[in-house]
Structures are given as structure tokens and as C-alpha cells.
Specification:
- By secondary structure, this protein is mainly alpha-helical.
Length: 117
């Protein structure tokens, strides 16, 4: 699958060796996560939005970036490792599922009204 030996993987697991950049990219693609997630640089498994330049990013760092970006809201809401809060309180997965369903319903009805107009 990865094109590496068992000995190489054993070295990675024992921290005596590390995969190179191409191998990290292949592993990330295989598990459908970001390289940053594999390297524990983020708690988010995959990118959620495109910057105004079309670049994938893990999470916005400032409001200006948020204003010029496109989010996959349901993807973010339903990602178990995403730390989401509302009014300082963490959202449980059940809460996230309800919010995702509510947003989808409202957006669907909004689109129906737009089409009728």
C-alpha cells in the first residue's frame, strides 16, 4: 500500500526513523487526514475551508480570513476532534448533530423560497 518495508514502519513506530515528506503525504491521503494532523500540529483531521486564494487551510487565524473564506459548516460541526463552543460551553456531538440538521433544514427551506421567487 505505502511501498515501504515492515522494518521502515517499525522504525517509525519506535521513533528511530521518520517517514519522508512524500510518505507523509501518501499516509495522509490514505487515511483522508491532513499532514498537520498526522504530525499532531492540529486537532482537526482535515481542512475545512478554502482561503480567498483557493488554498486549503486548517482553521482561520483572524476574522479577515474568515470573511474571505468558504467553510464546510456541517463538516466542521460533525468532526469529533473539533473543539467547538457556544457561549463558552463546549458542544457535545449530539448538540453538533442537532445544529447541523437545523442549519441544513433552514438552508433547504431558504433555497425553496428563493426558487419560488
Amino acid at each position: 500500500m505505502l511501498g515501504v518495508t515492515k522494518q521502515a514502519i517499525s522504525g517509525w513506530e519506535r521513533n528511530v526513523a521518520s517517514p519522508d515528506y512524500k510518505q507523509l503525504c501518501h499516509i495522509a491521503d490514505l487515511f483522508n487526514v491532513s499532514v498537520d494532523y498526522l504530525l499532531t500540529r492540529t486537532d482537526f483531521p482535515s481542512p475545512f475551508y478554502l482561503s480567498s486564494n483557493g488554498e486549503l487551510s486548517i482553521f482561520p487565524l483572524n476574522t479577515g480570513l474568515v470573511e474571505t473564506s468558504s467553510f464546510d459548516l456541517n463538516g466542521l460541526l460533525l468532526t469529533p476532534n473539533a473543539k467547538l463552543h457556544l457561549g463558552g460551553n463546549p458542544l457535545s456531538m449530539k448538540d453538533r448533530q442537532m445544529v447541523a440538521e437545523l442549519v441544513s433544514t433552514i438552508f433547504g427551506r431558504f433555497q425553496e423560497v428563493q426558487q419560488k421567487s
